[in-house]
Structures are given as structure tokens and as C-alpha cells.
């Protein structure tokens, strides 16, 4: 349990150091603690250590966590692959969804959120390396996707998310992250009201921050190896 608190302190210090190295504004990067497969007790330890944003992939597991921890001021991020038959529960229980890549998904989310006062925050998943095994839309589709997405009520299109192929070389990893950052900046310069770039995980968040990430999704480095 104490390791979780120590890990959080270390990672948050690393994030601040990376912000400074990259001439970023201090605290401009939000840490999402990826708590999938980890216990409610471990989430409570992280929360009591000052962590508010948590990411989950597995819906059934996460719904019980969200229900049991509803008295805590946790911001819940769904970061997994979206299954259409589970979308209602995702839309009704989460504050953020990071993995949207279909207009039909947004239409359903909008319908499911019509009786909920707060808008649901959305990141569009971009397949930066065009991997056939990964979800996400291509670079060429992003702008037209956003144009169509803004018509839906009950949601806020906040930005982009991507999970690039892992590269052992820091510079190569940075170059990949920078591609998505350049796309993000080009959209902002065109007037799209985006403020979120969700890139970077435990093994590569340093390069992601250097390339402009505003949200990093870290699990193993906080909670240790996932339970099988």
C-alpha cells in the first residue's frame, strides 16, 4: 500500500520535471491512474494520496468500483475499446471517454446523456501508426470527424487520444508522439476548441510530455503489475 503512495509522488515529480525541461506550464499535464484489475482498496490509497483521475478498461469491473466509490470525488476515464452493447453503461457512468472512433458511437452517447446535466468529455482516438490491430481513425479523417461530431448534444469534444507502437529509442518515440501533436496544433490553429492530447503511458510518458501531451495514462508504474 505504501508503495502506491511512493510511486505516485515519484511519478508526479517526474511529470513536473518533464514539464520544466520542455518549457511547459507547471501542472499542465494531468495524470490518469490506470486502475484496471486493481482493487478498490488500492484506488482508495491512491485517492487519499491526492490522485483524482482514474482510468478503466473493463466495464463490468469498473461499474462496481464506480458504485462503491461514488462518495469520493473521482473523475472516471474510460480508456478501453468500446463495445456497442455496453455503451449505455459507459455513457451513464463515466466523466470522460478516450476511445471514440465512430460517429455512430457519438450519436448513441448523445442519446444516453440526454437526461444527464453534465456533458461527457470525449477524446477521438487516432491510429497514428495505422496498425490494423488497433482502433482509431486515420489522420486524414480527423477534421471531418470533428465537424460532424460537434452537432451532438450532451458531449464535449475535448481532443485526441492515441496509443502508438512502443519504440525502445526515445527519439523515435518522441517523433511518433510529435506527429499527433502537430495534428492537434493544426486543428487548434484552425479554430477548433480542443484542449486535450491524451498520449503517453508508463513506458513512454516522458517522450509524450516532451511532445505536448496534456494527459498521461499510467498504471503499472503506480500500482505494479496487473493481476491476471
Sum this structure up briefly:
The chain has about 230 residues and is α/β, with parallel strands linked by helices. Helices cover about 40% and strands about 15% of the residues.
CATH topology: TIM Barrel
Strand order across the largest sheet = 7-6-5-4-3-2-1-8
Quote the beta fraction: 15-25%
Look at the structure and give the mean pLDDT: 94
Largest sheet, in brief, is: 8 strands, parallel
Radius of gyration: 17 Å
CATH uppermost class: Alpha Beta
Structural class: alpha/beta
Shape: globular
Order of helices and strands: HEHEHEHEHEHEHEHEH
Keywords:
228 residues; alpha/beta; TIM Barrel; 8-stranded parallel β-sheet; globular
Question: What would you say this structure looks like, in words?
Answer:
- With 228 residues, the chain is α/β, with parallel strands linked by helices.
- It has one domain (2-223): TIM Barrel, CATH 3.20.20.10.
- Helix content is 41%, strand content 17%.
- The protein has helices at residues 2-21, 40-48, 59-68, 87-93, 103-112, 142-149, 170-189, 205-210, 220-223, and strands at 30-34, 53-56, 75-78, 96-100, 120-125, 155-161, 196-198, 215-218.
- An 8-stranded parallel beta sheet has the order 7-6-5-4-3-2-1-8.
- Helix 4 crosses helix 5.
Task: List the SSEs and their pairings.
Blueprint: H1 2-21, E1 30-34, H2 40-48, E2 53-56, H3 59-68, E3 75-78, H4 87-93, E4 96-100, H5 103-112, E5 120-125, H6 142-149, E6 155-161, H7 170-189, E7 196-198, H8 205-210, E8 215-218, H9 220-223
Parallel strand pairs: 1-2, 1-8, 2-3, 3-4, 4-5, 5-6, 6-7
Helix pairs in contact: 4-5
Amino acid at each position: 500500500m505504501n508503495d502506491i503512495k511512493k510511486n505516485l509522488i515519484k511519478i508526479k515529480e517526474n511529470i513536473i520535471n518533464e514539464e520544466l525541461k520542455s518549457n511547459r506550464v507547471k501542472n499542465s499535464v494531468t495524470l490518469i491512474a490506470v486502475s484496471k484489475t486493481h482493487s478498490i482498496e488500492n484506488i482508495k490509497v491512491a485517492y487519499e494520496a491526492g490522485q483524482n483521475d482514474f482510468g478503466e478498461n473493463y466495464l463490468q469491473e469498473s461499474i462496481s468500483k464506480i458504485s462503491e466509490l461514488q462518495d469520493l470525488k473521482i473523475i472516471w476515464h474510460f480508456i478501453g475499446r468500446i463495445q456497442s452493447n455496453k455503451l449505455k453503461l459507459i455513457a451513464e457512468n463515466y466523466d470522460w471517454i478516450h476511445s471514440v472512433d465512430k460517429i455512430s458511437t457519438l450519436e448513441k452517447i448523445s442519446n444516453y446523456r440526454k437526461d444527464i446535466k453534465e456533458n461527457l468529455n470525449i477524446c477521438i482516438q487516432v491510429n497514428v501508426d495505422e496498425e490494423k490491430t488497433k482502433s482509431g481513425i486515420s489522420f486524414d479523417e480527423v477534421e471531418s470527424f470533428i465537424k460532424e461530431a460537434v452537432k451532438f448534444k450532451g458531449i464535449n469534444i475535448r481532443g485526441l487520444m492515441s496509443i502508438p507502437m512502443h519504440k525502445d529509442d526515445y527519439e523515435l518515440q518522441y517523433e511518433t508522439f510529435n506527429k499527433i501533436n502537430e495534428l492537434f496544433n493544426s486543428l487548434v490553429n484552425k479554430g477548433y476548441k480542443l484542449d486535450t492530447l491524451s498520449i503517453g503511458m508508463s513506458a513512454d510518458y516522458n517522450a509524450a510530455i516532451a511532445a505536448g501531451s496534456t494527459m498521461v495514462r499510467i498504471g503499472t508504474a503506480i500500482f505494479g503489475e496487473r493481476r491476471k
